[in-house]
Amino acid sequence: MLNSEVLVLNAGFVPIRITTVKEAICLMLAEKAVSVLEEDRFIKSPSLTLKIPSVISIIHYNKLPRRRVVFSKLNVIYRDDMRCQYCGERFTMRDLTVDHVIPRSRWESVTGRSMRDGFSTWHNLVCACRWCNNRKGNRLLHEIGWALLREPYEPEYMPYIIMNADKARRKGWIPFCGFNVKLVEMIA
Ligand SMILES: [Zn+2]
């Protein structure tokens, strides 16, 4: 119960992170945070009885943590909304890969640039299901009559918190999920 998750909002009610019940209660007892939404369960000790918080707000913290958009395989998949950019379907993480649109063996001859110049970047990587990835192999899109769902781009901004949409619904967090939260539907 103490390790159950709690959504942390800043003083302006913008989500900044997820923590544990244990840490949330510490922050509340230290008067650094107040409870915003509670569960119907209680935590009891000899000295106090508390409703378990589900959402808390930090009293004197009004900033938003900065987040650089780190170039990573996972962030390419998130940028593309877990949707294969070749067949257009959404998949679970397990069936997703990232694919070089212009494959390694063709990069230099197609672009006239060295491998260090743009090959593994936001602009040449897309989210692809493993089946499309396999079918495409070392070919170029026009050679097989495929087109990208969307031109790959470098995101200027990524949501700070990425969370499971089901969990957010279950815990009553949806009303607090603003611009910096990305809800991801987990497909069974
Ligand atoms: Zn696909």
User: Could you tell me the strand content as a percent range?
Assistant: 25-35%
Overall body shape? elongated
Helical region count? 6
Poorly predicted segments: none
The assigned structural class equals alpha/beta
Q: What is the chains' assembly state?
A: single chain
State mean pLDDT (0 to 100 scale): 90
Q: Can you tell me the number of structural domains? A: 2
What is the ordering of alpha helices and beta strands? EEHEEHEHEHHEHE
- Please compute the radius of gyration using only Cα atoms: 22 Å
End-to-end separation = 26 Å
- What ions, cofactors and ligands are bound? zinc ion
Strand elements, count: 8
Largest sheet: 4 strands, mixed
| Residues in helix, % | 10-25%
Task: Provide the fold topology.
Elements: E1 5-9, E2 15-20, H1 21-29, E3 33-44, E4 49-58, H2 73-79, E5 96-100, H3 104-111, E6 125-129, H4 130-136, H5 141-144, E7 161-164, H6 165-170, E8 181-184
Parallel strand pairs: 1-4, 7-8
Antiparallel strand pairs: 1-2, 3-4, 5-6
The structure holds zinc ion (ZN).
